[in-house]
Amino acid sequence: MLEKIKQILTENKDVDGYKIIENKVEANELFFIKKNVDMDRAKDVQHFKVTVYKDIEENGEKYRGAASTNIHPTMSTEEMEKAINDALFAAQFAKNPYYPLVKHSTKYKTVEAGKFSTETLPYWINEVTKATYKKDNYEKGGINSCEIFLNKVYTHVVNSEGVDVEAINYECMVELVATWKETGEEVELYRCLNFSELDSDEIAREVEDMINICKEKAIAKSTPNLEKATVLFTGEAVKELFSFYYTKSNAISVYKNESTWKIGDKIQGEEAQGDLITMTVDPFLKNSTHSGSFDEDGFPLEPAAIIENGELKRYISNNRYAHYLQVEPTGNISNIVISGGSQSVDELRKEPHIEVAVFSDFTMNDVTGDFCGEIRLARYFDGKNTIPVTSGSISGNINELHKHMYLSKEIEQDNSFMGPKGVKLLNVTVAGIE
C-alpha cells in the first residue's frame, strides 16, 4: 500500500513535496479488578499519515504550505486520491515561511533491540503482570484496579527527498489505582508507569511505594500554613519542573517569542548560588518509550548538550525551526537528562523543610515559569520531627527561585526523563488549611 501512496503522490504534478509516516501497532492489553482479570484484548492495526507540501510565491517571497491526511488500508485508489487532493487544496492556505524537507542521510544509528523483542507480547505482558502484583500482599490496602498495555510499534518514514527509514519500538504502560483504609475514609492514589524495557524489581518497588504512600496518607495531618518554606520536590514533580527548561530551550518557543532565551545566556542568573543545571537530550536513553534513531521528519538523531553549568549552549530544534533560526538542528528529541547536584537526598533533608511525595495535581507553566500544586502527601520536618501531612498547596515562580536550586546526587528515571531524585527550592509559598 505504501508504494501505491507514493505512486499517487509522485504522479500528482501539483505536489511539491511529501512525507509519509507508516505505523503498524501490535498490542496486548489486560484489565484487572484487584487481582482478577476483568478483560483482555489484542489488536493489530496499520495506518498512514501523509503530509503534502505546496510551494507558493508572493511578492518575491517563497512560502511552503503543508497539510496532512490519514490513509487507511481499506481505502480504494479513488478514496486515497481524493484524500490527498483535499489535503493539497488545504495546503495552499497554510502559508509558512519556506523550509526544506529532511534529505536522505547515511548517519542513522542502529538501536539495539530490547528484551521485549525476544519473546511474544502475551509472554511479556504476563511477566509485567507478575512484577506489578509482586508486592501487593497487604491486608488493609493494595492495587484496586490496573490496566496494562504492551505495544510493538513499527514506524516507517518516507519523503520526497529520499528519506526511507524504519524502526521497531516497544511501549509498555501500567496504570494503577492503589487504595488503603485505616479507620477513616479509604485513601486512593493513581500512578502511570511507562517504559520500554522490563525491570521487574523497579516495577515492584514503584507499586510498593504507592501502597505505602496511601498508608501514610491515611494517617496524615493537615498541612501547616508555613507561608514561605524550603520545599523538597521528588517524584513526578521533578520531571514537571524541568519541562520548563526543555520548553524554553526549544527553537519553536524562541521563534514564537514564547522564550527570550539566547545562546550564551546564564539561565539561572549571573549570581546563582545553588547547583547549576546541565541538561542534555538523548535519543538513545534506555528504557524510554521516546527513544529512537530518527524523528518524525526522518532526521538522524544524536545526543546534544543543551545547557552546561547553567549556560544555554544550543537550542533543541527540528529541521524546520532550525532553518528559521539559522541554527544547527538537533532533531525532535523528547528524552531529557539532567545531571545530579552536589548533595545527597539525605543532606538536602537536614534543614527544616516540607518534602512533597505526591501532588493531587502539579502544574508548571512553561512560558511564565509559574508553578502550583495541591499536596496529596508530604512529609514536614520541623527540625526535630517528621510527620506526614496532606491538603494545602505550594506555589512559586521558577525564574525567581532557581538561583537557589539544589539538586541531589542520586539520579532516577521516569520514562523519558532522567534526573535528580530530589530538587530543593527555598522560599516557596506553602499554604495550609489551618
Automatic annotation (TrEMBL):
GO cellular component term of the entry, any: cytosol
Residue intervals of the Metalloprotease TldD/E C-terminal domain: 228-432
Organism superkingdom: Bacteria
InterPro entries the UniProt entry points to: Metalloprtase-TldD/E_C, PmbA, TldD/PmbA_N, TldD/PmbA_sf
Gene3D superfamilies: PmbA/TldD superfamily
Pfam family name, one: PmbA_TldD_3rd
Keywords, sorted A to Z: Hydrolase, Protease
GO terms of biological process kind: proteolysis
Protein name: Putative Zn-dependent protease
GO-annotated molecular function: metallopeptidase activity
